[in-house]
Write a structure and sequence with these properties.
The structure holds three protein chains of three kinds. By secondary structure, chain A is mainly alpha-helical. Chain A is built from two helices and two strands, in the order ββαα. Chain A has one domain. The relative contact order of chain A is 0.13. The mean pLDDT of chain B is 85. The longest helix of chain B has 33 residues. Chain B has five helices and two strands; from the N terminus they run H-E-H-H-H-E-H. In chain B, helix 1 packs antiparallel against helix 5. Chain B is mainly alpha-helical. Chain B has a two-stranded antiparallel sheet with strand order 1-2. Chain B is elongated, with a radius of gyration of 17 Å. Chain C has one domain. In chain C, strands 1-2 form a two-stranded antiparallel ribbon. Chain C has a two-stranded antiparallel ribbon with strand order 3-4. The longest helix of chain C is centred in the last third of the chain and has 37 residues. The mean pLDDT of chain C is 93. The chains are: A mainly alpha, B mainly alpha, C alpha+beta. Chains in contact: A-B, B-C.
Chain lengths: 107, 126, 139
Amino acid sequence: MNIDPVSGKLPVRNADPAAGSAGKVSGSRDVGSGQMEDFSSMLGGAIADVAQQLRKAEAVSIAGIKGTASTQDVVEQVMQAEQVLQASIAVRDKVVAAYLEISRMQI
Amino acid sequence: MNDLAVFRIGYDRAKWLAARVAVVSANVANADTPGYRAKDISPFGSVLNDARIQMTRSQASHLAPDQTIEARYGVSPRAGAIEKHSGNSVSLETEMAVLGETKSQQSSVTAILGAFHRMLLSSTRG
Amino acid sequence: MADDLKIAVASSVSSLRAQSTRMRVLSENLANATSTASTDGEDPYRRKIVSFKTELDRATGASLVRIQSISRDSSPFPLQHDPGHPAADKNGNVKMPNVNSLIELADMRESSRSYEASLQVVKQAREMISELVDLLRAK
């Protein structure tokens, strides 16, 4: 992540639901390409993405249990939910660690 | 994060599947009993919002006489069962097919329950 | 939910026992299909019949199958003309056991199939119980 040294902001990540790898959060938040957003709104957005994916996974799982959704759909959504959750937990842990480190610094 | 809905319906489904296995087992056991008719339990969709399902959720582990599978889900003759001259209508092939399907459905349900359970655990871990 | 799976196992185990007994009796009939008497006036082997009944176990709610009775087939002994036989009557006829091997074999096949099916139910029900318990182990 390249933090702009002047404004302290981050470049916008473009939504890529097909990526699926750790560190990338799916979901779209169209801020406009080329614009910068700050860390807190990125974090807030990431959390909203996870909640949305979890709700989606839950809904399709309930449908799967009732027999109205296919196994593939359930597997796809649940795996995605696990992935984004894992990523957000990793971010959370790093934020907490960074906060603790900062709070220990002598100013 | 409120996952309780998926757990509740998952458990309902698992209980229904177990009851179905018990009925299939009774059918197979009585495949050669004269006059015995093959049975099945009510479809899951029809019992989903049934008042009786509410009972299964708070059920004690021992069964009172009126807590039979019949009382909890409703049991009726298996559709399409053909009666032999002995009066018995059990087809082992049908019962084995139902058993196989029930088992695979349970695998799916336990996998879903396991996944959400793990997600819940990992997100609440310190 | 595990209770119903245990009920399933109980039903099928009762079936295994009942079918085993039945197969034993069928084997006995087959083995004695030509067991005549040794003298005139005595009866040859009389076919045995096994009948099943369904029993509801009040404690668990399981539907169990039991042997209702092992009785003797009262149908008449067929006659075979064999004047030299020690059990031949004054007409030279010998009473043969009222066992039809073809029927006994057909019943044996049916019993064997039911036995195998019940075995499958026991196996799969136990696997399902195991799967549920494994949820507690999932990390």
